[in-house]
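To close the section, here is one more complete example, presented without commentary so you can practise reading it yourself. The ligand is pyridoxal-5'-phosphate.
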Amino acid sequence: MNPSLSLQIPSPVQRIDIDLYREKNLEVYIKREDLIHPEVSGNKWRKLKYNIEQAKKENKGILTFGGAFSNHIYATAHAARYFGLPCIGLIRGKYVDLNNPSLSAVRAVGMQLELLSREEYGKKEEEDFLEVLQKKYPDYLIIPEGGNNAKAIEGLKELGKEINDLAFTPDLILVPAGTASTARGLLRSIPKQSQLLVFSSLKGDFLNDRLVLEENENWILQTEFHFGGYARVNADLINTINTFKTQTGIPLDPIYTAKMLYGFHALLERGAIEANSKILLIHTGGLQGILGHNIKYQAQEELRIQ
Ligand SMILES: *Cc1c(COP(=O)(O)O)cnc(C)c1O
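Output:
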């Protein structure tokens, strides 16, 4: 791949040694997918890798979708720049602020943006809509929102392979979920003895329908730590982020990884995690979202991420 994109792969694994874990005799590790690359981080790189390969092979640019603070839009814009691929982002909402930190960064690296009304955006998976879009942009590979397609899951299997290569086999692997593509890639690639705990960042249990498609049945979906739904937060959640950062030096994002960690600690307090377990947390990245979060909540001290 392009030598100017220097990626830290395999992503580093570090032990987290805090009182809470020591008291319960747990060995807790975190796989720092957030450190793969400062801009093209976490599961979004895993998802993009084979999509970018295809775009390069077909000599195409990349066109994709996302919200005004999307980690996927951010990662795609930066990856496309490194690989010299033109790219277009279709953004949800006619009136989003093009100068928010995420969107100004992606524009600065050359992503062309188009704002779609929420209604139009809602059609982004419909065949007719995609056909018209492909006709309008014949030289672009269209990647769905969040980067979620079959190629994405292929890329995520490489994360599972890195877990197989560790010196230990985790009893539990914890991962946050939006669409659960990351979780599905892991189910196809992690050791069979490792149980996958999937923490939904969205309200509801609809991710069950996706996870049951996988052959590996060693997973549990956790649906109670959504904090009201996608991108919703409260002071408890933000406190978890700030405390964990102080204790370990590890930053968490408010949308995904913080909800996983909060859920993990809640399960621990309830005695739902067996003592002496080896636990691997997957840090899926998403830290670019903190800037936007802090602007949104600048008037609410208790919701600010330090
Ligand atoms: C996109 C994203 C997720 C969700 O991944 P899915 O594969 O959609 O479940 C989790 N964590 C971070 C940091 C993300 O950016």
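Once you have examined the tokens, check your reading against these statements. Residues 42-44, 71, 146, 148, 176-182, 253, 256-257, 284-286 surround pyridoxal-5'-phosphate (CB under 6 Å). The two ends are 36 Å apart (CA to CA).
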